[in-house]
Amino acid sequence: MEKENKRVVGYRRVSMREQVDNHSLEAQENHIRDYAQKNGWEVVKIYTDAGISAKKDSHRPSLEQLMEDARQGKFDIVIVDKVDRFFRHLAGLLSALDQLNSYNVAFVSVMEQLDFSTPWGKLMLTVLGVLAEIYIDNLRQETRKGKQVRAQKGLWNGNPAYGYCRGLCSDCQEPNGKGYCPEFGKPNKVEGKKLIPHPIDSQVVRSVFKWYLQGKLSDKMIAEKLNQQPFEMPDGIILIPRQCGHPGRTLPGPFSRDIVRDMLKRIFYTGKLPYYPNYSTTGKRIKRSDLGKVNLYEGQQPALITMEEYQKVQELRQLLGTNIRIKPGSEKIVRIYPLSGIAHCGYCGSSLRASSSGDRYYYRDASAIDRTLDCPQQTIRAIQTEEEVINLVKQLATDWTATNETMDLTVIEKQSQTRIDRARELYLLGEINQENYLEEKRKFDNLAEKSLYGKDFNAIMTLAQTIVHGTLLTEQKKLLKLTLKTAFYRGNHLVAIQPTELFQPMILQLSCSWGSSSRPPRLLDKKACLNDRLF
Prior knowledge:
alpha/beta; Rossmann fold; Hect, E3 ligase catalytic domain fold
């Protein structure tokens, strides 16, 4: 190759941002210019990518410009200090060199003293490319191990999650620091190794969970409220909160529905630390959506919400699908009907479907809607009906709890078993007659029947206490599904109920009257049929 009259360019790169200010870039350029000078070449331009990795699919603006200039024939030779400054991934390296070759541009590496435009140089290029790829694979594995160790120690990997900061107030570099955080410029709160609640953003997180649990706002409506809701700090400062963005990608600004959704799904706010093993045993990256499990560790960050609040939000989101839905073209939320799937007509047995008219909510007989039967069932007022059923369930749970919370089931069962065994023994000895024995056996059987809960006593007690101590309005549907299989109505009157197996022990002695009905709802067992004789 002639060494005269060649247009030569250099390319230099560092992968870590902390290397930008040291002598790495300068050293690379000196090596490039010295090599060109020894060969009688003049360097017309140096392309630089500072603080950018050379791994696969990385975005390097200067390299992209270099390849475009090569396509346009602006130079004849590219010089780099080392091969790994150009590419660490073999496929990317070979692809780039193939493009340069098609543009009649030669490639030279100073440290390896190789001209890759020759056959021998191409062979050595393949070997060096493989070594570079092995190096980055090993680096990736070591990095992954380090992240898992940090997670096991309860330390967060990456940028702080929204709601937290590193506590380095005196020289804060966080997006929601200077000009936003009232603690900016003050003495550091921690060493920066652990996360602490951000003074403003942590309040936003708590508010988002609180608002969602009220069941009246969708993700979109919460985002809009955040963008308009002033927050007052302890020192009296009032400001509009903002999301912190992603360094290098997006700037701090208004909240969106997606940001609120992601916030509500973060178990990190409970003080737990999730770690996703996002690589298979072959080293191939796995999408987070395809992961079978997540490792959950105790985090060192303070909890912003309780685990109970987090679980209630997840249950509510699952209950509602993915979100509280809004009618197209309207900001009005589509109402949740707790009795959907449970309420049935007491005349024909058809299900009662939810419907609305303006701000009024109803349940209507499906047979009347579909015009399949001529049923006398009238439209039922939803709000009043739902309140009556919820109050009934709570009253039954309250009565059952008051009766059974001090019960020692084991002692009662032992005493009853001893009594019936003694009665059997006396009957066999002829000391009591058959009538007395059968009466004792009937009492024992009745006790066993009333103790349907048996081994499930603790589960039933938990359900009863959950009902008694009150639940959020948005959990009414879940509550009714746990307690009732079916509720039959004639007009607005609840005339019969079929409980779940877990709830059945609470209503064995149903004796309350309800609504304007002259008698309490009838208890239906699994074999009961719907006919006029039931009511």
